[in-house]
Amino acid sequence: MHYIMTIIWAVLISLATSFVLTSMAGEPFVLFEALILAGILSIVAIFLGEVALKTEKE
Predict the structure, then answer these.
(1) Closest CA to 53 of 42, 7, 44
(2) pTM, two decimal places
(3) Which of 4, 14, 16, 17 is deepest in the core (most CB within 10 A)?
């Protein structure tokens, strides 16, 4: 379940970020590029949560 929520949040955050940055630059919004960013954010977030930030249990 936490993978699904991570992907949903990554999609929402990347869409908002892409929309704001392209609007500020005066460029057209491209959904495919925002979804690529969402995929990258999802992979990074899942990697950080599962591997990099794992605490050792005693």
Answers:
(1) 44
(2) 0.76
(3) 14
